[in-house]
Amino acid sequence: MTHSLSRTLVAGAVLLASVGCQESNPTGTEASALSSAALAAALSSVPIGFGDLATSYVGSGIADAANAGLWVGGGRDAAFNRGDLMGGGLHDAFVGGIGFGGRGGQRGPFGGGLPCAGTFNAATGRVVCADETRNGVMISRSAQYLNVAGTAQQAFDTLTTNSVNTQSKVTGTITFDRAADSSSSGDRGKDHWGRGRGPGGRLLGDTSTILTASTTINSSSNRTVTGLAQGSTQRTVNGLTAGQETTTGTSSRGSFTTTRAVGDTTSGLIIPVATSTTQSYPTAGTVIRSIRATIKYTGESAVSIVRREVVTYDGSATAKIAITENGTTKNCTRALPRGPLTCS
């Protein structure tokens, strides 16, 4: 991992944009004050493009970027998923929810290489994908493949590749299309408004209506996985992800600016290679996740919410999770792979 990219990711892991507030005063006088609780829905999703990064969050890729730039457009209807953890939940690879299969290191949690053949750059020893752009958002990807001896390889090999470092970046601007923010029938006939916004384009947690909005996204990830070569008994994962999202727009309450920052750091995560008779889940390491969301309406004070989740693995079938939200901490556990979150 390069030092410059590490600094970028660490700095970005503290910042992200969000929109939400309480009901406007129906008499037309001064609007009711905002509270951090009104921003809770911002914690339920991550910026568009996180699904294309190497991260512990569950997010959407840039293919789903159209009209979904606002945090309220995370598609989760302001509800936490997958064990009541933020950002769409904890990815299956981090809880033992992905099984091993196939030969060598190609399959299983954190296995495999880039989703493209790419072009090998001999000077850097990296394989680079062509940039991909959809709906105004671009993703750039590259990887370095090393064998057990540390020699760079021009492509991922299921038998001999032992280490993979992937670096990805998502950048772009999405413009909110109010005309397209209409109801459509979803699962079981339920209506869905703009991937999570309320009926009529209202902001979740608020009765104000989005009129115009433009969201700028700048997210990146850097992850290294070792122990992928045939015969390895465990995989080790280290990585950083940082996402920054800024939205400016107008609403029935007035002009607003929102910022949301999402980050995670994976340190020393150990995944034993499963046998035909054993279930494999992380046995060591930590994952630190954070989201900070802020909204400011013109003429009003800014309001923020921040949440931090520290997931620790100790070799047992239970992950320990410390959750701190706006300064208040609770200690929780979660049975692996898919147990409920239990907090004290």
Q: Note the beta-strand portion.
A: 35-45%
* Secondary structure category: mainly beta
Order of helices and strands: HEEEEEEEEEEEEEEEEE
H/I helix tally: 1
End-to-end distance: 37 Å
What would you report as the Rg, rounded to the nearest angstrom? 21 Å
Amount of helix: under 10%
Give the tally of β-strands: 17
- Low-pLDDT stretches: 1-30, 72-79, 182-202
Descriptive notes:
The chain has 344 residues and is mainly beta. The protein is built from one helix and 17 strands. The protein has one helix at 3-12; strands spanning 16-17, 119-121, 126-128, 132-134, 137-147, 152-153, 161-175, 183-185, 191-193, 210-226, 234-251, 254-272, 284-297, 303-313, 318-325, 328-335, 341-343. The two termini are 37 Å apart.
Present the secondary structure layout.
Elements: H1 3-12, E1 16-17, E2 119-121, E3 126-128, E4 132-134, E5 137-147, E6 152-153, E7 161-175, E8 183-185, E9 191-193, E10 210-226, E11 234-251, E12 254-272, E13 284-297, E14 303-313, E15 318-325, E16 328-335, E17 341-343
Antiparallel strand pairs: 1-12, 2-3, 3-5, 4-5, 5-6, 5-7, 7-10, 8-9, 10-11, 11-12, 12-13, 13-14, 14-15, 15-16, 16-17
